[in-house]
Amino acid sequence: MARAERTRVDIRVATEPPPGWDALTVAPPGGHVLQGLAAAEDARRRGWSPRFATFGEERAALLLIAPRPPLPGFFAYAPRGPVSAGDGASDVATRAIALAAWCRAEGATILAVDPELEADPVYDEALAAAGFRVAEEIQPSRHRMVVRFPPGADEAALWGRLQRSARQRVRAAERGGTTVHHDEAGECLEAFAGLMDETARRRHFAFDAHGDFIHWWRAVLAAGEARFLVAEHEGRLLGGLLLYVQGGIHATAFSADDAASRSSHPGTMHLLRWTAIREALTDGRAAIELGGVDLPGERHRPQPGDRAWGLYEHKVALGATWLESAAAHEIVLRPLTYRTALALHAVRRSLRSWSRAR
After folding, report:
1. Rounded distance, CA 225 to CA 251, Å?
2. How far apart are CA 85 and CA 59, in angstroms?
């Protein structure tokens, strides 16, 4: 166990988690499945070394580290952390700065953090003063589309908040014989992975569902921290929705449909998302996140003509509102090593290009 120096909080970092880890990182407000034990074990399987940071007795952050041979040092990342746990932006920034102090003392080259935190200039200014800079998102989206449940809201009230076009599509899917159910055993995950890969190609983002993702989906389902909804018609998979259970809400993590079936079976994703909204309300959750719509190079609320405009309209029709979230940040802790790594990467890329051109 190591203790950081020159920080404003008492940070301790261990190789094994203290008791009740998920209660500190997944369950509280702002908590995230990617900060939990299931994520730590999945990361270990992929070659990362999890570290479990605690700030006093009630706050914590999962930190993943990985060496970058042949250079010294290591890369460090707090995926969707440090979590806010209901604290203000200043407190979250303080914990990120404490992580940086520990990483610097241990020889890290760079640290990245990206908590699920509402955008706040206090957070940005505190990190900038400590040497952090805004970085491209490591996760697919930065901002979120959220359906909040007012006190006393019932299903009829939520149904009334849907736009008429969304209600029509939900009813069309039901009339067409599309059904939605939970796939607790993950029997449809392989087919869902195929739909995810098709979606990635269609929307021009990098994704390899048949790599590590199927293993991760099974792990998080087994941990009870996810739900997998599938839409089918006479045994044919039309679409799927995998949601995380975290921070007092349900949060869409992965979604995809069979684009070729949209004409013959309209409304699949409307029915899936409406089902997820209803279940989150029934479970007593405060809200449900329908996932992000921003893309690399377009980290803003979509406008007509943007690649994500259609998806944005789709989620607005289901009652979701745009939530501006804090950007990912990184801090370079060993500048010379970092510049050397960039130079080596550029050389390797040039050599690969030259080899392909031969």
Report:
1. 11
2. 7
Per-residue model confidence as pLDDT tens digits over 120-143: 999 999 999 999 999 999 888 999
Main-chain dihedrals φ then ψ at residue 59, nearest 5 degrees: -130, 145
Other residues' Cβ atoms within 10 Å of the Cβ of residue 352: 10
What's the rounded Cα separation, in Å, for the pair 149 and 134?
Answer: 32
Query: pLDDT band for position 355 (50/70/90)?
Result: very low
pLDDT average, residue stretch 37-51: 96
- Alpha carbon dihedral 77, 36, 229, 325, in 10-degree steps, equals -50
| Spatial distance between the Cα atoms of 339 and 344, rounded to a whole number of angstroms | 9
Q: Cβ-count burial of 338 within 10 angstroms (0-12 exposed, 13-18 middle, 19+ buried)?
A: middle
Residue owning tokens 């970085």: 135
Question: DSSP readout, 251-280?
Answer: EEEEEEE-GGGTTTSTTHHHHHHHHHHHHH
Q: What is the DSSP letter of 74?
A: E
CATH number of 2-140+326-357: 3.40.630.30
* Rg of the chain over all Cα atoms, to the nearest angstrom: 21
What global pTM score does this model have?
0.90
Question: Cα 310 to the chain's mean position, in Å?
Answer: 21
- Residue 133: the pLDDT is 97
* Whole-angstrom distance, CA of residue 192 vs CA of residue 190: 5
Tokens of 12: 């301790």
Select the more confidently predicted residue: 129 or 297. 129
DSSP three-state, residue 293: coil
Residue 92: band (very low, low, confident or very high) from pLDDT cuts 50, 70, 90: very high
Q: Which CATH superfamily is domain 144-323 in?
A: Gcn5-related N-acetyltransferase (GNAT) (3.40.630.30)
Return the domain boundaries, the chain: 2-140+326-357, 144-323
